[in-house]
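Task card 7
Instruction: Convert sequence to C-alpha cells.
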Amino acid sequence: MSAYTLEDMPLMEDLHEGDYDVAIVGAGLSALSLLHSGGTALGRTVVLDYQEQVGGLLRYLLPADGFGTEWELLRDFQLPAGVRLLLQTTAVGLLPANDAEPTHTLVVRQRQGTTQLRARQVVIACGGVERPREHDAIPGTRPAGVMTPVLALQLLAQGYLPGRRALVYGDSRYALATARRLAEAGLEVITAAPASGNGRSVRLCGTLEEICGFPRLTAVRLLCDQQSVEVEVDTLIYATGLLAGTHWLKGSGIALTAAGSIAVDAHYRTNIAGIYAIGTVVRPGLDHEDSVRMGQEVAALLPGGVS
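Output:
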C-alpha cells in the first residue's frame, strides 16, 4: 500500500512561493482518483489534508470485501510528479477571488501556525465525519464504549480491542465490513439496523431507543416490531451516516444544500467560479459510492485537465 506521510514537510514560508493552478483540499478517495486520472495535466498543484497519511477515513477499513476498486486505488496510488502534498495541514477558511484578488485564498493551519496559499482553482474534497449518536439525539447515558466505526478501526490498527461484545448499528457496506473486522479480531458481534434500512442482512432490525450503563456501556434497547428488546453489550459502533465537512466554509459564500453538503452542478462546480467540490462533501455516505467516479470525472472537467 502506498503510504505518503510527513516526510519532507515544507516550511510555512515556502507556501508563499507564487500561486498554484489547482489546490485540492483533502487527500481521500475522490482526490486520489482525480490525481490518478489527470494530476500531471493540471499545472502547479497542491494537495492538503489534516491527517498524517493519504486515503481519508476509509483507509482504516481497507482492504475489505465490497471495496475492491477503492483498495486498488489506495494500494497502487503514486503521487504525480510536480504535485505538492501537505499533510497535517488543515484548511480553516476560504476567501474566494474578487476584483482586487484574482486568485482564491485558502487559510491553512500547520503545526507551525496559520498561513495562506493562493490558487486559481480550488477542488474541495474534504469528505466528512461519521455521524455520532449525539447528532441523532439517541436517549440514554453517555458511557464509555460508544463510538463510530473509524474509532473502532483505529483502535484495532493500534493493536487494541474496543470491547468484548459489540453491537454494530447500521447496514451500509462499511458498517457490515467493520462488523466482520471486529469479529475477526475476536469480538462477539451483533449487527442491527433501522427497519427502514436497505435490506442488507443484519441480525436485528429496529429503532435504537436507549443507551444504558455508566461508566461503561452495559446494554442497548431496540424497538423491534413494536417490542422493546434489550441487548447486553459493552460496545456500540454507531454507523448510521456521514456529515459533510463544511464547517470551515462558513462565511466563504459557498452554497450548501439543506442537508449541509456542498451544492454543485452537473460539472461539480459550486456557485463560485473556479471552485469545485467532489466526494462525500457533496454526497455524504459511509460507503463512498461515488467518490472514485467523481474524481475521474472532474479530472476531465477542470480547465487543463485530461480529455
